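Risk register update: the risk of archive-format incompatibility is retired. Evidence:
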Amino acid sequence: MITEIPTAQEFHDAGLNQLHLAWETATNLLRGANEKYTGSELDEVSLEEYWEKSQVTLGNAFSLIQQAMELGIKGRIAAVSPFILIAQEHRQWPMEDSPFSEFRTVDAVDLIRVHNAIATPPFDDHFRAFFDDVRRKRNRLMHSVPNDIFEPGALILNVLKAAEALYGEKPWSQHCLELEAESRIRLYDGGENVVNNVMGDVEVALEHLQPAEAERFLGLKKQRTYLCPSCYARANRDYGAEAFPKMAQLRSKTPGETQLDCRLCGGTSTVERADCGNEDCKGNVLDDERMCLTCQHDNYVRPLPASV
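Archived output:
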């Protein structure tokens, strides 16, 4: 009997974790570069060396993307039947009880063909080309002297493409919030920095995305952005409060629109439309405590103390 048969959900979760690790690797390196180098001539030389020294790490992250895609496709096949993944001929199957992991499974090069034969919707030619390109580059990395130069921005884009195709049941930023909350980091800080960490990852990723890519993969359109009241309330505000990224946008461009949708957490807040009292701010979107969601100016008018 075949034992320890993996479920579709187990393949899905394992792949999602691999993809998130690739994302964190790329965004952490990008944050490190932003923190260490300011653009002077000396720093530009140092930055070039920084990325040269980061190639092995970036290559490992690229391999994680390929593994995540492979696991995601296997999960979709396993949803029909995990036994379809077994590539060994029946005569090679052991006579005694054996775990699923001891069987040779379908080669990566054949996964899309198998998937499209038994599952719907099928993968299209665009995804097939994307998967094959990632798979070939990963093979060069693992089996020969690699000549590919891995760019962190390209890795970010590849993660988002893979997430859209294989883990698109919810937006990528929401996957990140959940995975960050479950990570080992919460053992040290109690989870109080979950929102801050994901905000920082998305912010640095946005620096390397075109506007159309930011809208497609992260939902951020080419319009004004605001602080999300919900994310702000959940974030650790003990430091850097003035630097919170703005990840929320008004639902429409209709004058007086009061529904603010967050592209990070997926929540919706009802806001007040009134001019900010900060003369240097042109914002007119306030939260329920009348904090300006553009500049964070406190517009709350406190009542005078009762006379004695």
